[in-house]
Amino acid sequence: MRPPHSRHVRTFLAACATAALTAGLLTGPSGGATAAAPGRTIVVAPTGAVNADDEGPGTTNRPLATLEEAQRRARDQAAQARGDVTVVLLDGTHRLDAPLRFDATDSGRDGHTVTWKAAPGANPEVSGAQQVTGWELDDAEAGIYKADVGHGLDSRQLYVDGAFARRAQISLASSDLTLDPDGFTINNENLSYLSDLPDQQRIELVAHLTWTTRITRVDSISGSTVTMQQPGWDNNTYGYDTIQNPYIGPRFSLVNSHAFLDQPGEWYLDTDAGTLYYKPLPGQDLDNTRVELPRLETLVEVGGTYDEPASNLRFEGLTFTGTTWLGPNSPDGYANQQTGAIITGVQPDRPADAFETCSRGCYGFEGSRNDWEQMPGALQVSAAKDITFVANTFVNLGSVALGIGQDANAHATGVGLGAHDIAVLGNTFTESAGGGIAVGGIQADAHHPSDDRMVNRDILLSENRIYSTALDYLDNDAILATYATRLSIEHNYIAHMPYSGIGVGYGWGANDPGGSQEYIDRGLYDFQPIYDTPTTLTDVRIVGNHLVDTVNTMWDAGCIYLLSAQPNSTIEGNFCDGTGQLGLYFDEGSRYIDVTRNVLMNTNDQWAHANIQGGHNTGDLALTGNFSTNPAITGIVDGERGNVVADNVTFSADDIPAGAQQVIDGAGPTGEFDQYGPVGVMLAADRTSVYAGESTTVAMTVVNRGDRPLVRQDASIAIPDGWQAVQIGEGLRGALAPGAAATVSWEVTAPGAFDVPFSQRTVSAELSFRIQRDTYVADRSLTLTALNPLTSLDSYGSVPSQFAEAGPEFAILTEGADIWEDAGGAFDEYGAIYQPGAVGENTTVTARVTHMDNTHPWAKAGVVIRNDVTADGSSPGYAVMVVTPGNGVSFQWDSDGNGYLDSFGGAGGVQAPAWVRLVRSGSQVSGYYSTDGNSWTQVGSTVELAGISATQDAGLIATSHAAGVTGRFGFSDFSVSE
User: Fold this and answer.
1) Which residue of 413, 546, 560, 632 is surrounded by the most CB atoms within 10 Å?
2) Where does the signal sequence lie (predicted)?
């Protein structure tokens, strides 16, 4: 829910911050609040104000002309320590030529505070951008305009009427490229013009993968050969989720050439000529459109030294806007590893053949971990204490909006970490290139500091709104906290994020006491010690947050995502409404966390999942009294690994238990932060998966649990291109009385055909309404899956399953406990696409597994032969060759002919995409795998298959290995040959 800007919000936020001080959340040097003494007010006008003068008194009638002069005077006043100092910014845009840097000399003294704030009723902007004017038509046929912007910058961002404009780009199919250690070869003759383009070294290949976004600049294009800049290309093809071997994807685009400028809303900057080109959106008049081109990378840099930290500073009611981040412009590119962590420079331990041998990790890659760098914040706080941000807006920024206590490489002051008693209260973060807030570093001093003053501690992130951001760097979280002591993330509203909503922890458990067997096996500890003391990550509170539509683009993420040990930590009272993958994700080494009274609604996969494969120390998790609409939980078993799992409730979104409703009502910003009162808005579909051309009903339900009526309700729906939506009935009419509920529905129809087997798309609905004189907006979204019908082969599911195909590609959406028999039980639960009677005495069955949802480390997808694929639990002659997300490839067969798989051979280190094959010779069967479709490796031995018949069915098979949890499994190039 997004309330309007209001004086009531700012008034209450100011009161809240004051209350936080007196309650001890933020304290002065003596540990308690100090009464304010009379101080000095300095007034500064926006850039270009006619009555402003830096030689004047700095009053309302005769304000200063620049923020730089205001800072100089505030510093002088603070040094006198005669009281609080307040810098008041008048309404308008305050443009900076250089960032404002605050150190100990800018700090409040003797318990006093230096405050930078908006004038009453004003909305001043602090901007690092220049406004672009003087547009003229450049290409009438293409509808492209140009403007002179001067020289000396190569910005990666442009903001048009507050919206994030896209650089000129073209999309590439994976088949358009053949990647190699130096770059790639162009396979599509329609792209032959690339070799003739000017400024080739400014063109970038952007790849959005599973959990990483990767960017590399071109070095040269000659014919069909594209050579990429180094070391960026080496670093982007090194480690995990690499460009040449992602777990999901890739989605490629070429960016930043005038030749790509063909879509409305795109732009290109010619740095040599100092000319900006832009293709307006339909109906956009550039004479009446505000266009902002950022020049600065940072706006505010708060940081001193550990001996003399910056302190007692407060920023209130300001809008911070108009930055870029130029890091990816360098030959390093953006070699992302996870959540804004990047590899830079030549890697000394990278093997010469890393493109082939280290696309899914290797020994040398472990040597890079301790030197990873971080994306910096547009506003930065380090070596600082008692710093407060209240009721500000962070918008149109080129990186992470606010970086607190990150490593030194992410701070312009050169001093990182050391941030304590920091409060971020009631701010708005949206429409920027990176995430909202990043707390903590990732290098050794962040988790085991060499100086105790480096510890990030006592940090409060509360009542903030963070939504629709991370627009360039999709790997960013709304809130990321790596290492901090006594961290509270409370009552924030987080929505529409490509990756996780809240992520806490780093290091994958490798830096925790005793280390991790997984990283012993990988060789990490040849490059760093095994620590015997805990990290600085402890006493974390994630409480009362409202998260909507997270993980809507990337993968291997959760609404709330955890890493590594977090002693004395709590996740309580959070409401997660809609996520593209997991609800609560306890990744490698997550430990010592109490999880209670959370509501996980409309999670696409498990409501809770723990990564316990590979020797991780994940465990000591207490999950009690939670509510979820998805019953599945994996990797967390009561009584195992120190876990407690009890009293968790599965419910329907149409029938919410009272306990869950209480959590929902209490989640998100509270009190005056939450002016709209207890209004519930839910979006649901009667079917979330449909076939091409079919329809589903999407309904928005509004419940008024407050004591005032809702009036002027207006609901609308936004659907993907090619889909259709028609409202059913009259919709919302009249006022909605207290205690009443109303529903508006739409019939949503998928396109008639797709060029992929299944397509996932987000459907969003928006509701506006008024309570008394104030207008509010609620937005909700859900993910719909459309399947292209299966026509060329038969299908069967022993559990609920759906099947699709497009060209040579197939997909199975299925659940299933397992396809296996042992002492724990006999299971034969799967979905299969098959060809009846296709297998004879000498037959080879081959397919490529292109995609697997990680529903469980032992989920399976591959090829099957069986006397009768439709006779689950009984038909003999049964063998499969499958890929798993976490246990490599496996050849499994039914050794006694009772209709259940009971024997296997395996090979580790292989994940999708991978080729699998079954070869039958008489009554003997063998299993093989390949990573390239050419070189094949046998798995286990050739076996005699009991009960095999002269002819058999052959096909594709999948099981999620998680009862009641549907996984999506992709295949291509299925063949049956003699």
Assistant:
1) 560
2) 1-35
Question: What local confidence, expressed as pLDDT, does residue 678 receive?
Answer: 59
Which residue in 796, 686, 813 sits closest to 757, CA to CA?
813
Q: What is the DSSP letter of 323?
A: B
Range from 133-142, 201-210, 450-459, 964-973 carrying the lowest mean pLDDT: 964-973
CB count within 10 Å of CB 641 equals 16
Cβ neighbour number for residue 696 with a 10 Å cutoff: 18
Q: Where are the beta strands (DSSP E) in 296-333?
A: 300-303, 310-316, 319-321
Peptide bond into 913 cis (omega under 30): yes
B/e letters for 191-229, b = 16+ CB within 10 Å, e = fewer, are beebeebeebebbbbbbbbbbbbbbbbbbebeebebbbb
Mean of pLDDT values over 485-513: 97
Kindly list the structural domains of the chain, giving each domain's residue range(s) and its CATH number in brackets, ordered by start.
677-787 (2.60.40.10), 794-977 (2.60.120.200)
Residue 453 — left, alpha, or beta (φ > 0 → left; ψ -120 to 50 → alpha)?
alpha
* Contact assessment for residue 564 and residue 539, using Cβ atoms and an 8 Å cutoff: no
Of 12-16, 55-59, 290-294, 784-788, which gets the smallest average pLDDT? 12-16
User: How far lies 821's CA from each of 499, 855, 858, in Å?
Assistant: 37, 20, 14
d(CA 580, CA 973): 28
Specify the pLDDT at position 671.
60
Strands 384-390 and 377-382: unpaired
Q: Give a three-class secondary structure readout of 356-387.
A: HHCCCCCHHHHCCHHHCEECCEEEEEECEEEE
Identity of residue 604: N
- Which pLDDT score is estimated for 688? 84
One-letter amino acid of 404:
I
Residue 871 CB partners (closer than 8 Å, separation 6+): 899
Q: Output phi, psi for 933, to 5 deg.
A: 80, 0
CA distance 703 to 682: 9
Looking up tokens 């008041």, which residue turns up? Answer: 88
Q: Are 955 and 833 in contact (CB under 8 A)?
A: yes
pLDDT tens per residue, range 515-560: 999 999 999 999 999 999 999 999 999 999 999 999 999 999 999 9
* Spatial separation of the C-alpha atoms in residues 32 and 451, rounded to whole Å: 25
Q: What share of the chain is helix, strand, coil (3-state, %, to 5)?
A: 10, 45, 45
**CB-CB contact of 343 with 221 (8 Å):** no
Residue 469 tokens, joined: 């951001």
* Length reported for the chain: 978
Tokens of 366: 């472990």
Residue 738 has pLDDT above 90, yes or no: no
Q: Is 468 left (phi over 0), alpha (psi -120 to 50) or beta?
A: left
Prior bond of 250 cis (ω within 30°): yes
- Among 816, 772, 838, 812, which residue's Cα sits nearest to residue 968? 812
Task: Express as a percent the part of the chain with pLDDT over 70.
Answer: 95
CB contact at 8 A, 289 and 280: yes
Q: How far apart are CA 368 and CA 76, in angstroms?
A: 45
* CA distance linking residue 860 with residue 678, whole number of Å: 44
> Whole-angstrom Cα distance, residue 330 to residue 319?
29
* Residue 351 CB neighbours (<10 A): 15
Closest by CA position to 751, among listed 791, 778, 726, 720: 720
For residue 658, the surrounding DSSP H or E stretch is helix 658-666
Strand partners, 243: none
Q: What is the pTM of this model?
A: 0.79
For residue 715 the two structure tokens come to 């609901």
Q: Which residues contact 163 (CB under 8 A, 6 or more apart)?
A: 431
What phi and psi values does residue 974 have, to the nearest 5 degrees? -75, 130
| Ordered alpha helix ranges (H), 367-516 | 444-447
